Amino acid sequence: EPEVTQTPSHQVTQMGQEVILRCVPISNHLYFYWYRQILGQKVEFLVSFYNNEISEKSEIFDDQFSVERPDGSNFTLKIRSTKLEDSAMYFCASSEEQPYEQYFGPGTRLTVT
Amino acid sequence: GQQVMQIPQYQHVQEGEDFTTYCNSSTTLSNIQWYKQRPGGHPVFLIQLVKSGEVKKQKRLTFQFGEAKKNSSLHITATQTTDVGTYFCAGSYNQGGKLIFGQGTELSVKP
Q1: pLDDT at A95
Q2: Which residues of A touch B (CB under 8 A)?
Q3: Is the pLDDT reported for residue A1 higher than 90?
Q4: In terms of C-beta distances under 8 Å and separation of at least 24 residues, what long-range contacts does B34-37 make, across chains too?
């Protein structure tokens, strides 16, 4: 069964450093998303992406965040200057259509020290 | 703003007992989805409800969408230890893909 993959599984970085989280969505899916989940809390929407542009973003997704689909398979989330409060699990998701079911990847645990 | 509230936060049941979690939105939803997240895992899609008053069943799981499309519930009959995890509702307010998640209900099942 096709699945969303994410790398790395765990990223440790120092405050102020840039990080790039990578995702490979399911191949025939057209809509891509990033969510985050602070430990023990709910899943929070960050951004949705379709047709090579952002379609929606949340208040969390400020100027420090950016997304890119650099080639036909990868979908990346960049945080330019990480803060302690960026520590969370970041999930990538994709869907074939909207508002269809979203398939979540296994997540990248980001730890900012 | 758009918020989805979910209760209870935790539910501890004996195996064989029933379980229900409830979601409520302050404004009308376009659709609602339910996800299950096992400890240490990622959200896994269970179901989507779109129509007012819709009821869907998956084996021991029953999902309902309220008439006003502002609330939803998930009911599990005769829980099993494999049902352990956190159940999230996630609402959408337009035809877009942005999902607003509830806080989740963590279910533990004692054998």
Answers
A1: 92
A2: 31, 33, 35, 41-45, 48, 55-56, 58, 91, 95, 98-107
A3: no
A4: B34/B63, B34/B72, B34/B74, B34/B87, B34/B88, B34/B89, B34/B90, B35/A104, B35/B87, B35/B88, B35/B89, B35/B90, B35/B101, B36/B85, B36/B86, B36/B87, B36/B88, B37/B85, B37/B86, B37/B87, B37/B88, B37/B104
